[in-house]
Amino acid sequence: MRPLDWAVMFGWLLFLVAYGLWRGRGSGSVSQYLLAGKTMPWYAMGLSIMATQASAITFISTTGQSYTDGMRFVQFYFGLPLAMVALCATAVPIFHRAKVYTAYQYLEQRFDAKTRTLVTSVFLISRGLAAGIGLSAPAIVLSVILDWPYRVTVLIMGALVVLFTTMGGIKAITWADVLQMMVIMAALVIALFIAVESLPRDVSFFDAVRIAGAAGRLNAVTARLDWNDRYNLWSGLIGGMFLALAYFGTDQSQVQRYLTGKSIAQSRLSLLFNAMAKVPVQFFILFIGAIVFVFFVFVRPPLLFQPVGLAAVQQSPQYPSIQSRFDMAFNQRLSAARRLRDAPDAAARSSAAADFRQAQQRLDAARARAMELGGGNDANYIFLSFVTHYLPVGIVGLVIGVIFSAAMSSISGEINSLATVTVIDIYARHIRPNASDRHYVIASRWATAFWGIYAAGFAGAAQGFGALIEAVNQVGSLFYGGLLGVFVLAFFIRRAGANGAFFGVLAGEAAIFAAAKFTNIAFLWYNVIGCLVVIATALIVSAIAGPKR
Amino acid sequence: MRDSAAPEPPGDRPPVFSSWPRAYAFVIAYLAALVALLYWFTAHFSP
Question: What's domain A3-296+388-461's superfamily in CATH?
Answer without folding.
Answer: Sodium/glucose cotransporter (1.20.1730.10)
